[in-house]
Amino acid sequence: MIPRTETNYIVIHCSATRADQEVTADDIRRWHVEDNGWSDIGYHWIIERSGKIQHGRDAQVQGAHVRGHNHESIGICMVGGINQTGEPEDNFTSAQWLMLEMLVESIQLRYQEAQVVGHYYFTPYKTCPNFVVEHWLESIQ
Predict the structure, then answer these.
(1) Is residue 5 within 8 Å of 71, Cβ to Cβ?
(2) Domains and CATH numbers, the chain
(3) N or C, which terminus of the chain has less Cβ within 10 Å?
(4) Which one from 44, 69, 119, 121 is the annotated catalytic residue?
(5) What is the dihedral of CA 138, 98, 17, 58, to 10 degrees?
(6) What span, in angstroms and rounded, lies between the C-alpha atoms of 25 and 140?
(7) Residue of 126, 136, 85, 76 lying closest to 106 (CA atoms)
(8) CA dihedral for 130, 30, 74, 72, sign (positive or negative)
(9) What tens digit of pLDDT does each residue of 94-121 get?
(10) Which residue among 43, 44, 65, 121 is the active-site one?
């Protein structure tokens, strides 16, 4: 595992799963390790549908969640993000929103200069995390 060299970004993702899918951090780890052949889960934290925050990769280790920026970012994944037909949908639970706010605030205490962005910030053809992070940030100010 490669250490993260800096923390300029806190990147929010979604798992691109339906609201009725009970996906856990272990499921995502299995997808990343077994299906993708990675050494571990790509994200540092996962927020499950219940609002439970699960640890992914060690926060001091480089993630595998945003090509070209893993060395300078921390990745958070919200479980959900698509509708029944696989289209992007902001379908996150109130518990997830609360935990996202608390988690981001706690990470910002340690990395005060880090900018909070969605995955789409680096990969414009993506809609992940399937909500506008800038609007969410404004709503919690």
Answers:
(1) yes
(2) 14-71+79-111 (3.40.80.10)
(3) C
(4) 119
(5) 100
(6) 26
(7) 76
(8) negative
(9) 999 999 999 999 999 999 999 999 999 9
(10) 43
Element (H, E) at 134: helix 133-140
Band (pLDDT 50/70/90 cuts) for residue 24 is very high
Return the SS3 of 117.
strand
Whole-number Å distance between alpha carbons of 36 and 50: 26
Q: What is the pLDDT of residues 31-85, one digit of tens each?
A: 999 999 999 999 999 999 999 999 999 989 999 999 999 999 999 999 999 999 9
User: Which single residue is written with the structure tokens 């994944």?
Assistant: 77
Of 65, 69, 120, 128, the catalytic one is 128
